[in-house]
Specification:
alpha/beta; Rossmann fold; 2 domains; six-stranded mixed β-sheet; four-stranded antiparallel β-sheet; 9 helices; binds adenosine-5'-triphosphate; nucleotide-binding
Length: 238
């Protein structure tokens, strides 16, 4: 579904990504692991076409990224950023249906609300939550709302940037399990940025350890424990 070939990106002459190649096929869940500031979010933005790479290419369904490909990708992508990034002044259902109400193809209020209720149901929230404001909800419920917004319209690509930040371990585990089941249900390609090894084991099929602008270790999640890489070992021992 998405392939990154030899991506490089610098800021002010300082290289962040030097040579990154990866591929996520539909139905596959890839976790990007790496120390703070290694360029994981930059990589996600380049994958989405929100930031241009200095070198290398992003391919979507075999076609190189272009303005047209990016527009198509936007309608088929669900994103959950750090924090749930909800609009405080809008009720939950309008947050979930935001894309339908404000996108290029506007959907009527009733239909948008129905779509929001269906997405909320998929993330385990009942209709009573729909008319509340985000500030009325717990952190875990807010993440669920963010997930409902991400899966609305059955996207083919899902990007999660630290979906568990700020949650207690039990709630984080519930969100991980939910993410895994949503990705499987949608058959989407998923990229999750996280530092959390428990999360990686729950969510990922494949793991990509980014360090010094390159893949330091890359492989199936089952191979993590046998891996000899010292940096990976430090993540695993946390
Ligand atoms: N638009 C930008 N302009 C200048 N520098 C940037 C920009 N975006 C990112 N950077 C720099 O690129 C580096 C990588 O940032 P990025 O946010 O991708 O790291 P990260 O791995 O996601 O970190 P964290 O785990 O802390 O979220 C940082 O040094 C950051 O300051």
């Amino acid at each position: 579904m998405i392939r990154l070939d030899h991506i490089a990106k610098s800021f002010g002459g300082v290289p962040v990504l030097e040579d990154v190649s990866l591929e996520i096929v539909s139905g596959q869940s890839l976790a990007i692991l790496g120390r703070s500031g290694t360029g994981k979010s930059v990589l996600a933005r380049i994958a989405l076409g929100l930031m241009a790479a200095d070198a290398g290419q992003v391919m979507i369904d075999g076609a190189p990224m272009s303005a047209k490909v990016r527009r198509g990708l936007m309608t088929q992508t669900g994103v959950l950023f750090q924090g749930a990034a909800l609009f405080d002044s809008l009720p939950v259902w309008e947050n979930v249906a935001f894309r339908l109400r404000h996108g290029p193809k506007r959907v009527r209020r009733r239909a948008a609300k129905d779509a929001a209720l269906e997405a909320l149901d998929k993330v385990g929230l009942d209709a009573r939550v729909a008319d509340l404001l985000p500030s009325d909800l717990s952190g875990g419920m807010q993440k669920r709302v963010g997930l409902a917004r991400a899966i609305l319209g059955r996207p083919r690509l899902l990007i999660f940037d630290e979906p568990n930040s700020g949650l207690d371990p039990v709630t984080a585990g519930e969100i991980d399990a939910l993410i895994r089941s949503l990705v499987t249900d949608l058959g989407a390609a998923a990229m999750t940025i996280t530092h959390d090894m428990a999360s990686i084991r729950a969510i990922a099929d494949e793991v990509f350890l980014l360090d010094a602008g390159r893949a330091r270790w890359q492989g199936p999640v089952e191979d993590l424990d046998g891996a000899k890489d010292p940096l990976l070992a430090r993540f695993l021992s946390r």
